[in-house]
């Protein structure tokens, strides 16, 4: 069972101190040598929505959220502490609810991931995220890629808000 809490500096620091190897490597590649300080600054920024997930004993295990950009786009992120295997299913179910909540505000959510991070890719696909192909981008992928170009060894992932009712088919 995962208990949701508002962001606070103590829990954010605890998770950053105990990150999974893959998450630590991605933050290092993104922010460089002072990745912990820079990530903390971005996470605690007032424009970054953050939620913390704790186990039943009150230990912070996960945090995630979004940072809104123009045209109803949001950059989503999620970081996990080591040794969360017992809570993995609970975490994924909570994530599914969280992204459904984001659909109320954004037409698309996206971010980048290390191309070699296979485990994160699997759960991102399960959550409905897609990984665009370089040569055959659809209209929505071109819009996202216009705002956000991934660095070398990274690839972009995105999720479009499900359309309710009549949808418009782009040709």
Description:
The chain has 171 residues and is an alpha+beta fold. It has six helices and six strands. Strands 1-2-3-4-5-6 form a six-stranded mixed beta sheet, sandwiched between helices. The radius of gyration is 16 Å and the shape is globular. The termini are far apart. The relative contact order is 0.15.
Task: Summarize the topology.
Blueprint (H helix, E strand, L loop, with lengths): L2 E4 L2 H9 L3 H11 L3 H10 L4 E6 L5 E10 L3 E8 L7 H15 L5 E7 L3 H9 L12 H9 L6 E7 L11
Summarize the structure.
With 171 residues, the chain is of the alpha+beta class. It has 6 helices and 6 strands, in the order E-H-H-H-E-E-E-H-E-H-H-E. It is globular.
The gross shape turns out to be globular
| Oligomeric composition of the shown chains | single chain
| Uncertain ranges | none
Contiguous helical run count: 6
Mean pLDDT level: 83
What letter string, H or E per element, gives the SSE order? Answer: EHHHEEEHEHHE
Largest sheet: 6 strands, mixed
Distance between the termini: 44 Å
Measured as a percent range, the helix fraction is 25-40%
- Total number of strands: 6
Specify the structural class.
alpha+beta
Q: What is the rounded Rg?
A: 16 Å
Give the percentage of residues in beta strands.
Answer: 15-25%
Strand order of the largest sheet: 1-2-3-4-5-6
